[in-house]
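To the team - adenosine-5'-diphosphate complex, inputs and output below.
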Amino acid sequence: MTAAISTGASSPDRVILPSPAEIRRSLPLVTVRGLRVAYDEHVVLDGVDLDLFPGEMVALLGASGSGKSTLMKSLTGFADIAGGSVRVAGHDVTNLASGELRTLRSEVGQIFQQFNLISRMSVLTNVLTGGLHNAGRINIAGSFSSADRQRAMHLLERVGIVDKAKAPARSLSGGQQQRVAIARALMQRPRVILADEPVASLDPKLASSVLDLLREIATEDSIPVLVSLHVLPLALKHSDRIVGLRHGQMLVSAPTPDLDADALAVLYDDGEAPDENH
Ligand SMILES: Nc1ncnc2c1ncn2[C@@H]1O[C@H](COP(=O)(O)OP(=O)(O)O)[C@@H](O)[C@H]1O
Ligand SMILES: [Mg+2]
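Output:
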């Protein structure tokens, strides 16, 4: 079993933030050791180690093709694991029992660059679909329970777009759509959140506000948030820890305050870290 820190908070103004020491003391919700993924002869991840602790926002850096998405897929059983061990929220991903994959995926909230919303449906319905991982939540008439609707509205309030609940998802701006996707992920009551390039389609100001929101969720809900990014200043500003892949190997893993752009240049072939003008 894994343990999460309890903030003892039921409303945002009563949040007691865990100290970094408290975060470290709790058990990791994700533990990866010696992970190897290969497609035919091509080794994509090579001996990767990773721990994710409750309450921390971890930025995953690396050049395009370094294996960031594959690492995230490995955590949810979407990659063919050739070696090593992967434990996520108590599940041994390399050795899942029958039916366990569905449970694992219901416990991991995923957020993508392109939001992946159902564009013609309302914002509220999109959020409600996040709860569908848990079987039996739709009644016979095919509608959602009032408890679920209330919860979805509460989550839309939390991500700051409750006034858009009835609007079709496609009518929202990119930043707003990503907030819907975050609310949808929260609807699952995730134990871990994986966000693969969640701000790559947003301008820098919106990108910052979405990352602020994700970090707030990590802290308030005491869950780890792993977020891949390719803009270094965003990673340095919005994470507690940075891990970095180069050619499938984890070359960096350190608290963010210990790192700067020079220290991270090792992740990039030309020694030049990408900036905002990627
Ligand atoms: N399904 C696949 N089949 C073959 N090669 C793949 C597949 N998925 C990813 N790769 C390769 O694995 C490497 C890492 O890809 P990826 O994890 O998407 O990197 P990143 O997210 O860091 O850009 C790339 O060389 C990519 O071409
Ligand atoms: Mg990728």
